[in-house]
Amino acid sequence: MSEKATEIANLLSPTVESLGLELLGVEYLPAPGGATLRLYIDVPLVEQPERMVNVDDCERVSREVSAQLDVEDPISGNYTLEVSSPGVDRPLFTLDQFARHTGESAKIVLKLAQEGRRRFQGQIVRIEPEADAVVFAVDGKDVQIGFDNIDKARIVPDWVALGLAPQKPNKPGPKKPGHDKKKPSNESAAGKPRAE
Questions:
Q1: 17-59 pLDDT, tens digit each
Q2: According to the UniProt record, where is the region Disordered (predicted)?
Q3: Domain-by-domain residue ranges, the chain?
Q4: 3-84 architecture in CATH?
Q5: Is 44 left (phi over 0), alpha (psi -120 to 50) or beta?
Q6: How far apart are the C-alpha atoms of 69 and 12, rounded to whole Å?
Q7: Topology of 95-155 in CATH?
Q8: Residue 191 CA, distance from chain mean position
Q9: 3-84 matches 95-155 in fold
Q10: Please, what sign has the CA dihedral across residues 137, 139, 144, 150?
C-alpha cells in the first residue's frame, strides 16, 4: 500500500472492526478529475467460510466510513469511495495475508525490477519475517522478494478447485487405420457423358 493508503487504513480500521468486519487493505488512486478510495473488507477469519461479505456489509461500511472521512478529511479534493469484498482474486496487502495464503499462486507487481523483471507469478512458498520478505516459487526456482518492494499482489484463483474451470473442447481422436483414403473427386464424374 502507498503511504497515503496506509494512513487511511490505520484511520478507518477501527471503524470497520466495530462493524464486525476486517479491513484487508486500501487502494488510494489519485487522478486529475478526482481520486478513488477503494476499501477491501472481509469477515474475520474465525467466521470463515460459514459467513461471507455481502452487499449489506459493504453498504454499512460505506455509510460509516463516509461519515468518518467527512469529519477527519484525510483526502483533499473530490474522491469516490468504493467498498468491496476481496473476491476470488483477492488482493494481498500484509505479510500476514501472504502467510495465510501459503501454497497458493499469486501475481505480483514490483516497485523496482528484480532479476530484470517487475512482474512475477508464482506459488507463495513461505514468509521470511527476519528479512521482511516473501519467497515465491517462480519458473522452478525460489525467488525472495522484499515486502517493501511489492507494489501490488493478487491471488490467482484455482478455477479447477473452485469447480469453475471452462470445459475443454473435445479433440479429434487418432485416425483409424484405413480411413485416410481420399474420397473421389467430382472430376471423374465430369468426364463421363450424361445419360439422357
A1: 999 999 999 999 999 989 999 999 999 988 888 889 999 999 9
A2: 164-196
A3: 3-84, 95-155
A4: 2-Layer Sandwich (3.30)
A5: beta
A6: 8
A7: SH3 type barrels. (2.30.30)
A8: 66
A9: no
A10: negative
Predicted structure pTM score: 0.77
3-state SS record for the chain: CCHHHHHHHHHHHHHHHHCCCEEEEEEEECCCCCEEEEEEEECCHHHCCCCCCCHHHHHHHHHHHHHHHHHHCCCCCCEEEEEECCCCCCECCCHHHHHHCCCCEEEEEEEEEECCEEEEEEEEEEEEHHHCEEEEEECCEEEEEEHHHEEEEEECCCCCCCCCCCCCCCCCCCCCCCCCCCCCCCHHHHCCCCCC
Dihedral pair phi/psi, residue 122, rounded to 5° = -170, 175
* Exposure of 62 in the CB half-sphere (CA atoms within 13 A): 14
